[in-house]
Amino acid sequence: MKIGVVTFPGTLDDRDAQRAVRIAGGEVVKLWHADANLHSVDAVILPGGFSFGDYLRCGAIAAQAPVMESIIDAANGGLPVLGICNGFQVLVESHLLPGGLIRNEHQHFICRDQKLIVENVDTAWTNGFKLGQEITIPLKNGEGGYIADDETLRRLEGDGLIAFRYSEVNPNGSVNNIAGLRNARGNVVGLMPHPEHAVEPGFGPDTPLAMRSGIDGLTFFTSVLNQVVNS
Amino acid sequence: MVKQVSTVDTTNNAKKTPDKEQPWRELGLKQEEYDRIKLILDRRPTSAELAMYSVMWSEHCSYKSSKIYLRQFGEKVTDEMKKNLMVGMGENAGVVDIGEGWAVTFKVESHNHPSYIEPFQGAATGVGGIVRDILTMGARPIAVMDQLRFGAVANPDTARVVNGVVSGISFYGNCLGLPNIGGETVFDKVYQGNPLVNALSVGALRHEDLKLAKASNPGDLVILFGARTGADGIGGVSVLASETFDADGPSRRPAVQVGDPFAEKVLIECCLELYAAKVVAGIQDLGGAGLSCATSELASNGRAGMRVQLQEVLLRDESLTPEEILMSESQERMMAIVPKKDLKAFTAIVNKYEVEFSVLGEVIREPRLYINWGKEEIVNVPPRSVAHDGPVYERPVAYPAWLDNLNNNSVNHAQLRRATNPSKLAEQLIQIVSSPNQASKSWITDQYDHYVGGNTALAMPDDSGMVRVSEETGLGVAIATDANGRYCQLDPYNGAKLALAESYRNVASSGAVPMAVTNCLNFGSPENPEVMWQFKQATAGLADGCLELGIPVTGGNVSFYNQTGDVAIYPTPVVGVLGVIDDVARRIPSGWQDAGNNIYLLGITRDELDGSVWSEVIHDHLGGKPPVVDLAAEKALAELLQGASLQGLLASTHDLSEGGLAQTLVESTLRFGMGARVWLNEITERDQVDLTAALFSESTARVIVSVGREDDVKFVGLCEARGIPVLRIGVTDASGQLEIQDLATWSIEEIKSSHSATIPELFG
Description:
The structure holds two protein chains of two kinds.
Chain A: E1 2-7, H1 14-24, E2 27-32, E3 43-46, H2 66-76, E4 81-84, H3 86-93, E5 100-102, E6 110-118, E7 134-141, E8 145-147, H4 150-158, E9 162-166, E10 178-182, E11 188-191, H5 218-230
Parallel strand pairs in A: 1-2, 1-3, 3-4, 4-11
Antiparallel strand pairs in A: 5-8, 6-7, 6-9, 9-10, 10-11
Helix pairs in contact in A: 1-5
Chain B: H1 11-16, H2 31-41, H3 47-56, H4 59-62, H5 67-75, H6 79-82, E1 85-87, E2 94-99, E3 102-110, H7 112-117, H8 119-136, E4 140-150, H9 156-176, E5 180-187, E6 196-206, E7 221-226, H10 238-244, H11 261-276, E8 282-285, H12 290-301, E9 305-309, H13 322-327, E10 333-338, H14 343-352, E11 357-364, E12 369-373, E13 376-381, H15 383-387, H16 403-408, H17 422-433, H18 442-445, E14 456-458, E15 465-468, E16 476-482, H19 485-490, H20 492-509, E17 513-522, H21 529-549, E18 553-559, E19 563-564, E20 567-568, E21 572-581, E22 598-602, H22 613-617, H23 631-646, E23 652-655, H24 660-672, E24 675-678, H25 681-687, H26 691-696, E25 703-707, H27 712-722, E26 726-733, E27 737-740, E28 744-747, H28 748-763
Parallel strand pairs in B: 4-5, 9-12, 17-18, 24-27
Antiparallel strand pairs in B: 1-2, 2-3, 3-6, 4-6, 7-10, 7-11, 8-10, 9-11, 12-13, 14-15, 15-16, 16-21, 17-21, 19-20, 22-25, 22-26, 23-25, 24-26, 27-28
Helix pairs in contact in B: 5-21, 8-9, 8-11, 9-11, 20-21, 20-23, 23-27
């Protein structure tokens, strides 16, 4: 199973996403922003960071990169795409997912172990979770406040397109506690928290059992591998 | 593109006009320094040369006041200490062999003055600068830490500086993708007009990838790449600019640099790819003193020379003068020495990253630095005279007139009231753990990304930060830093040793083996003999301490002139210790994790409250002598912790330092929300101390550990065999409470809210 991980200038978590794919049992293909060729990957991850310095608007410049043209086409054709943090912002700027992400309500960058509720398991990236499951995934962003107009929100809620909601604490002022979204087809998922930082015992969030032992994020990557195998 | 500038001061012009008035004094040079430049050149310097010498001979770049003391870090060492040192002091950063073919490089540096003027950019570019130092050694930067000292929390200006500095570090560090794994934050009125912003970075490299800042092969190209050169960070050179140009020319330039972390991130990846392609023969970052420093140091280190065409420098502002170009401290720039045959490969890589570059000139055999502006020669100097043979001063030292009085005014002499009733002591405990310096700093550290990279094994609030270096074996490094200005004010010699001892203990507490030391020596004006005495004492203390512990100083930084008017800051030598751990999976948490574990106190508690947090928070007092340093005991303790950790006996370890046992108990319970029942009577009986000392004394060489019951006998046996004083003082439990018997019982929630509310209330 080949999973492409895109690197834009200013991408930071690409090596983490690559590691997550390897731990889940997938084969990593590094994709470069300036190269439109997707090298026949079975899925794509847009990792976190500050692509193009987050100048203009987070994700806005990256959304125009040559690799994104191919990714948008492929996503519309059903290729599984996961956008993490800055990658979620790129998906929104590419109109693969609706709404927008703005500066955190409290104006500060925040890094914390965040509890999420899995709201939808009918996607390429969440099929390994149980509906309503509470998971802990590190969150780190300065511009993670999700917004959308009322009509879009109604549609997202009505059509079951909310993939994750923040639990206990809303860390950035996102409307309806929205942490992540899916598209109607379920192949595209975007979220602000970082599942690739919760895949390896010793380097993830704390759990009641042991320090830094949380690996709830691994299910994102095993989900897509299972989906690709089954399809 | 060749510009026509007629007013440029050439070397010929300098010969013809020997008596021209030059603004050497305004540039910070002394009469004898100016005379010395004339002697070296056998003529007056051109304005460009004067600019170069003035910045390179500044205290910041030349270490002219500190050099004679820094030498002892290289002298007070044994062969054993040098064994793992691949690069020692004097390079951009020291490099230590950590085994398995891996090496690490680490260093801490100050950015104090810019951070007071413009806290956000000052702190941001401080991070950027230290990261480029690490990158320059051929290493991939893998983590950062910050050591911050701010003014009193009650002063309205403190919030401005705190918010600016923290957002600056958050902005720059987070955008670089380097985990921030720890640091220090201290508030004290002595830092009001002169906050300290120190930044540490650590990087990892394979042995064969080591790079040095030298240009030694004639014919190699001198290439400047990265951001364009602008008018930022020029500072004093504006004097020259206004000298050289009329009123229409460039005038006052901002002295604080402006950082672009995105450009630096791209530069990091670009440099690492250049290194991997082996197309770089030498590399130097551009930081303080900009091109003046990079050209002269590269040539001087390589025992060669250089011919440079200054008009080839890519500019952000076409109106810059040659002097300003030489001095500019624009960020995110690097200078590479590239063999001609590799230019094509070099170009392909920098183009891939869309990084701009220009070839400025080439390396020559003759040890001379020639810089031209178009056809005119504006610099013709021996590079060594600029970079390495600057003035060296043995400044006057004087024992501070006020020190005896301060030392005599101990806690006992001042008869500070000690509480005896339990409720009063309990109240003091809460007062201490919620005081600004002892309270949780998570409001600050939560603004830093500590996950990126996926290798963070420990980060704040644990005793040290730890990152994995090898994903194959788990080999990793731990780093802790410490400085206690109050102790150093009382006794700079032992104060520096105490900082070393605490960093060493913190690293050992994480399960790592301490290996190397870096420092950032923050002091007042070297022209004040009392400050110079403090500096002399602190450096001697640190060098002696390192020799005793058997770990070498690999590099560091000196920051003088930290004062407001005549009032200097407390001497604040920040000491960083780096340790190695064969597998980060073996690291020890700082907090209690499991119920039913025994809690042991290792080490002896003495009545040592002079200079303590208790004396500060409860009595607003500073006097007496700091706690006794016993480095032999520290070493024995560290070895015990390593032995016990290798056998898997330790469920947690937390060192005792500022705030004493009280602080450590609170932090141990809050780390994972595990409760405990603790008793103090055996401490007071065995060590013959009262309850105030048992709770708040800052005696050194102490830690508390928690040990599973099944390992009890083995652990206590190990302590006794090694002669480490050991006392069972409590048991962890799932009660959701911290109970100190005969004193008080708190719910964990209650303590947590006292400990964590302070900082957000002040600055949030």
